[in-house]
């Protein structure tokens, strides 16, 4: 339950971060996903080309800006192009404007650019605005009562009126960077004086296909029956190409006739500046590009049907899935290393899936927030698991500190077994020991304090023998000791460990009796019974008070064997079940079959005499 609550809170927190787009995280997320453009092998559309005012042209014609008559002579050779769009504005009047306007008027495919401003010292001329109004997106604007909130500008730097009037249409070439100052998105339209105007790229497509822009839904525009995905501000994410793929023609080559008009037939020609120092350079995920290539990228994306669709619902699914997987691994995988490997593999699978969707279908899935979800979820869940484990470990150490050796206690505390109410069937070796004639001893001593002191002196070495041999001290029953081996921690060769414990008890008792003799106390004699078999072991009792113990027929048999030591006059008796497991290690005497109370068949028993070897083999703990 606690893990589910933490997982749910983590989902809410990560989704909050994802929707709020907190500056630092959002910038990092954008950079994190820029690897998309290194994975694709897209080819740029051949029907878009840039005619550039480049270094070669500037070296020939001189410093920019040139006499506009030169531009007029050059663009006159572009009559076969589908569209000629200017990524520049001619806002200052010159003596050559008429010649340039005449060249523009001779074409029926021109789009002049204008630049948007948030403030300006000069008001726009009403006649200029009237001309500009012919380029507005009337159809789209009528459907904008709600949904997309296109950005608004109060001012624009427009072309001088003769040039403005000579162009077929106008388009804004303003672009905006993302929060990390990189240009990742392309605007489709802006508001200016309460009218909606298309960007240079969108206007170029309108002219090429002779189609208006409609609105399919809030996040999608429609042009020539093709969808353009947009965000709430009308921006679409750009799908960049390799820098060297952008096709550029020098204006000088066009001017000199080195480029034949047939080579530009049916193409969208972008007219821009790429000479260093005079062209606008913008930072992008693939490096710095001249501004005209931003329009180029959008146009090629549309023509190639490579516009990026942002699958917001998949973003949420991947984020939630990552947190859910962490929860499942926490609940069902016991080892930390296995969980860490599972975390990494799960994210790798999702990451590769997202990149394949991008490469093959231009579907953009933000993989930063699923990674953030993984990190936050794994840290919180692992910390909670560690806290619970430490709490359980403290409880285990407290509960078992008097019954297990420190070695077994630490192993139990670090194991994945939970101390829950209930038990399991398991093969164990059980040991019972009892003091002979204890009633007589207690009557003769006739002093409760001395009797308790004697029992404490006896129980101390007996308990130590159990712990030294990897046993679990179950309980003291009056003067009797009950112990078992192979639970709660697995002990390899537990039958051997129980037998060694019995021999150790015999040895420690001999040492104790010497001490008692010096104190004038009669020696103590004990009987020990050992049996190996299946028993139910676990926490038994009530939910608030329980005891870790064992029950079953095998336990009863061990107790009966301890009683049989009086009848046979020996100190240690083991069952045949134990004997078969230790006969190669210990010297035992066959005592034959004996009836056992509660059992229909007689049980074969053996006297445990001694170890066959001088060396003591310590039981190995698994």
From TrEMBL:
Does the keyword field hold Cell membrane?
yes
Q: Where in the cell is it found?
A: Cell envelope
Its keywords, alphabetically, are: Cell membrane, Membrane, Transmembrane, Transmembrane helix
Q: Which SUPFAM superfamilies match?
A: Nucleotide cyclase (SSF55073)
**Gene Ontology process terms (BP):** cAMP biosynthetic process; intracellular signal transduction
| InterPro entries xref list | A/G_cyclase, Adenylyl/Guanylyl_Cyclase_3/4, CHASE2, Nucleotide_cyclase
* CC annotations in GO: cell envelope
* GO terms for MF: adenylate cyclase activity
Membrane spanning segments where?
313-333, 340-361, 367-388
UniProt domain Guanylate cyclase: residue ranges: 429-562
Short name of one Pfam family for this protein? Answer: Guanylate_cyc
The similarity annotation says: Belongs to the adenylyl cyclase class-3 family.
Q: What is this protein called?
A: Adenylate/guanylate cyclase domain-containing protein
Originating organism: Sulfurimonas marina
State the taxonomy lineage. Answer: Bacteria, Pseudomonadati, Campylobacterota, Epsilonproteobacteria, Campylobacterales
């Amino acid at each position: 339950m606690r893990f589910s609550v933490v997982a749910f809170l983590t989902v809410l927190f990560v989704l909050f971060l994802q929707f709020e787009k907190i500056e630092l995280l959002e910038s990092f997320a954008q950079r994190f996903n820029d690897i998309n453009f290194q994975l694709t092998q897209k080819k740029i559309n051949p029907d878009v080309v840039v005619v550039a005012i480049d270094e070669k042209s500037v070296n020939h014609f001189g410093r920019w800006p040139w006499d506009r008559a030169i531009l007029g002579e050059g663009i006159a050779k572009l009559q076969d192009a589908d569209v000629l769009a200017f990524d520049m504005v001619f806002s200052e009047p010159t003596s050559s404007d008429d010649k340039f306007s005449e060249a523009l008027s001779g074409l029926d495919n021109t789009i002049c650019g204008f630049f948007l401003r948030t403030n300006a010292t000069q008001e726009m001329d009403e006649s200029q605005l009237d001309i500009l109004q012919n380029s507005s997106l009337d159809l789209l604007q009528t459907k904008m009562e709600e949904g997309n909130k296109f950005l608004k500008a109060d001012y624009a730097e427009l072309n001088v009126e003769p040039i403005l009037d000579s162009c077929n249409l106008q388009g804004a070439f303003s672009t905006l960077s993302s929060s990390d100052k990189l240009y990742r998105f392309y605007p489709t339209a802006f508001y200016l004086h309460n009218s909606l105007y298309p960007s240079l790229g969108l206007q170029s497509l309108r002219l090429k296909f002779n189609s208006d822009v409609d609105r399919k839904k809030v996040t999608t525009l429609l042009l020539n029956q093709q969808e353009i995905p947009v965000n709430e501000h009308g921006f679409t994410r750009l799908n960049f190409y390799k820098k060297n793929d952008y096709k550029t023609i020098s204006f000088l080559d066009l001017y000199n006739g080195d480029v034949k008009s047939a080579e530009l037939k049916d193409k969208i020609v972008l007219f821009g500046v790429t000479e260093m120092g005079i062209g606008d350079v913008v930072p992008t995920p693939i490096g710095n590009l001249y501004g005209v290539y931003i329009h180029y990228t959008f146009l090629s994306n549309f023509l190639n049907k490579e516009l990026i669709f942002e699958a917001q619902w998949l973003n949420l699914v991947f984020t939630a899935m990552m947190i859910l997987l962490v929860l499942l691994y926490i609940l069902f995988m016991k080892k930390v290393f296995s969980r860490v490997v599972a975390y990494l593999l799960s994210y790798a699978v999702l990451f590769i899936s997202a990149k394949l969707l991008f490469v093959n279908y231009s579907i953009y899935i933000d993989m930063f927030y699923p990674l953030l979800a993984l990190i936050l979820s794994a840290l919180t869940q692992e910390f909670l698991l560690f806290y619970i484990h430490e709490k359980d470990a403290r409880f285990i150490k407290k509960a078992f500190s008097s019954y297990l050796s420190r070695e077994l206690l630490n192993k139990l505390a670090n194991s994945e077994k939970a101390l829950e109410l209930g038990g399991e069937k398991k093969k164990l070796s059980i040991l019972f020991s009892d003091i002979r004639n204890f009633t007589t001893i207690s009557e003769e001593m006739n002093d409760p304090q001395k009797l308790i002191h004697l029992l404490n002196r006896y129980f101390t070495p007996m308990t130590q023998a159990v712990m030294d041999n990897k046993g679990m001290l179950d309980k003291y029953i009056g003067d009797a000791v009950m112990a078992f081996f192979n639970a709660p921690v697995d002990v390899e060769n537990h039958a051997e460990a129980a037998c060694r414990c019995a021999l150790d008890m015999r040895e420690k008792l001999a040492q104790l009796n010497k001490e008692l003799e010096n104190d004038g106390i009669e020696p103590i004699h004990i009987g020990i019974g050992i049996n190996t078999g299946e028993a139910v072991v676990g926490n038994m009792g009530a939910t608030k008070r329980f005891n870790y113990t064992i029950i079953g027929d095998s336990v009863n048999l061990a107790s009966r064997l301890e009683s049989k030591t009086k009848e046979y006059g020996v100190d240690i008796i083991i069952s045949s079940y134990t004997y078969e497991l230790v006969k190669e290690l210990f010297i035992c005497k066959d005592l034959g079959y004996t009836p056992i109370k509660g059992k229909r068949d007689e049980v074969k028993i053996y006297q445990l005499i001694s170890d066959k070897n001088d060396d003591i083999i310590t039981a190995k703990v698994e």
